[in-house]
Design a protein that fits this description.
290 residues, alpha/beta, Rossmann fold, Helicase, Ruva Protein, domain 3, 2 domains, seven-stranded mixed sheet, two-stranded antiparallel sheet, 9 strands, 18% strand
Length: 290
Amino acid sequence: MAYLANPKNTIEILQKYHFNFQKKFGQNFLIDFHVLDKIMDAAEIGADDFVLEIGPGIGTMTQYLCERARKVVSVEIDANLIPILQDTLREYPNAEILHHDILKLDVSALVREKNDGKPVKVVANLPYYITTPIVMGLLESRAPIDSMTVMVQKEVAERMRAKPGGKDYGALSLAVQYYAKPQIAANVPPNCFMPRPNVGSAVICLKRHEKPPVMTEDEKLMFRLIRASFQQRRKTLANGLSHANIRGLSKEQIQEAILLLGVPENIRGEKLTLAQFAELSNIINRMCGE
């Protein structure tokens, strides 16, 4: 078996198919056995698992996944990579390749069709320019996903797991943590890829919550408050929310809601926890219902 984590084998395959890297797809292929081992360990891939892989590239990680999982369905957007994948994965009967855009794919329907609707594990080396839409799209879809173990830009991984008050803490931190528990499994330097990216990377595992860690009466309102709070970080929470026209409330009413939350009137959004945002949304929801 010609493992593609070996740079020599990767180069041979790329030359065989005269493959040119597509900048528009953010293609950086992994060429490091140790990193692959760390991804497998973090994802806890076992013999009974169904894995949905996003962006298999030439199949480097897919080979590893197929040796551990019961079934691997890999979704690849680049048509030029499909014949290469059919070649590099020909020895794996449990591999299936879909030529599709993951952002347009109905993952819930896919899981129903391929895995009887039972939870799957997502593993991916994500293009950095489109990481957040893919991760949030999967989380918000409420498709039956047990966990997501993804390679992302290191800076994005830090934002996903950030705690209140830090410079990395923001709307992405809160959104990810509402749906999942994030844990960075490994930091990955640029020399582990071909071609080398300009930034460091990290493997982050998002273990899906069975139910949200906070109770909110209106989820959409809570996320609207979160987005408005971080659109202009230097503004106080009251100013940020009053400029967002939250349910037609005046600034005075918003200040009243903040005081009812039990925090200083001049607090900034970056200081609030997920639980406090949920409670604030409940307070505002009740004010509007009176």
